[in-house]
């Protein structure tokens, strides 16, 4: 089992460029999440999708959009990248929203210059 | 604002010693979970304790939960160098999503 797969693993963007981070899970999980991790800040929730067809804002949604393409895939889009969005991004999934352990991807390290 | 705060922020011990890290949170919870993160990797789920449970074991891990004090502790017994990692608590606060703390960095020296 691959679990949660994120692409790309590394990306450098110029300010103002756009990009989409891809996430796919093969565990038939209902819920999917996007977090960002910054030094000393722990993980902060950007957006989540409790089930296919639904998405909701988390703690830090500004500057991001998401698409739950199907049950397997949940993408995160930066429309106009800013240096403040330099971070490590993690996708996660779970069987039940919030009520079970999450499975995390290996992360995307994004640098905006 | 962070729901969970781990203490200490960093901990250094020798192999064979026990490591204890604590987590405090602010609001009522459904459950509390602990995760490990090795450097440069994603988080790995270690253990989940529900609000009606007081203690749970998994191998060398022991987790306690005191809902009256809104706190939890993670004990790793007989630590190994391979336990070197960051450890995060995460709370399920009836809002369909986990909120993570800022983590404890554990260094285990051989």
Q: Low-confidence parts of chain A, pLDDT < 50 over ≥5 residues? A: none
Report the structural category of chain A: mainly beta
Average pLDDT, all residues of chain B: 92
Category by helix and strand content of chain B: mainly beta
Give the % helix of chain B: under 10%
Low-pLDDT stretches of chain B are none
How many β-strand runs of chain B? 11
Largest sheet of chain B: 6 strands, mixed
* N-C termini distance of chain B: 37 Å
The rough form of chain B would be described as globular
How much of the polypeptide of chain B forms β-strand, as a percent range? over 45%
**Rg of chain B from C-alpha positions?**
13 Å
In round numbers, the mean pLDDT of chain A is 93
Write up what this structure looks like:
The complex is a heterodimer of chains A (113) and B (110). With 113 residues, chain A is mainly beta. Chain A has strands at 4-7, 10-13, 19-25, 31-38, 42-49, 56-57, 64-68, 74-78, 87-94, 103-104, 108-112. Chain A contains no helices and eleven strands. The N and C termini of chain A lie far apart (36 Å). Chain B has 110 residues and is an all-beta fold. Chain B is built from no helices and eleven strands. The mean pLDDT of chain B is 92. The A-B interface holds A 4, 31, 33, 35, 40-45, 48, 50, 56, 58-59, 90, 92, 97-107 and B 2, 4, 30-31, 33, 35, 40-45, 48, 88, 90, 92, 95-103.
């Amino acid at each position: 089992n691959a679990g949660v797969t994120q692409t790309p693993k590394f990306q450098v963007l110029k300010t103002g460029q756009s990009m989409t981070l891809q996430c796919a899970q093969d565990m038939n999980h209902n819920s999917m999440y996007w977090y960002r991790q910054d030094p000393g800040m722990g993980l902060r929730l950007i957006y989540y999708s409790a089930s296919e067809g639904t998405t909701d804002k988390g703690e830090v949604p500004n500057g991001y959009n998401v698409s739950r393409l199907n049950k397997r895939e949940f993408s995160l889009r930066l429309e106009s990248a800013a240096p403040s969005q330099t971070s490590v991004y993690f996708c996660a999934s779970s069987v039940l929203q919030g009520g079970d352990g999450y499975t995390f991807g290996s992360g995307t390290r994004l640098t905006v210059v | 604002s962070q729901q969970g705060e781990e203490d200490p922020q960093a901990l250094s011990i020798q192999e064979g010693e026990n490591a204890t890290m604590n987590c405090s949170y602010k609001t009522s919870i459904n459950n509390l979970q602990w995760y490990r993160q090795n450097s440069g990797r994603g988080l790995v789920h270690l253990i989940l304790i529900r609000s009606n449970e007081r203690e749970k074991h998994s191998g060398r891990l022991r987790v306690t939960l005191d809902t009256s004090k809104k706190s939890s502790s993670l004990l790793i017994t007989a630590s190994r160098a391979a336990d070197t990692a960051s450890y995060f608590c995460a709370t399920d606060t009836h809002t369909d999503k986990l909120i993570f703390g800022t983590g404890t960095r554990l260094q285990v020296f051989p």
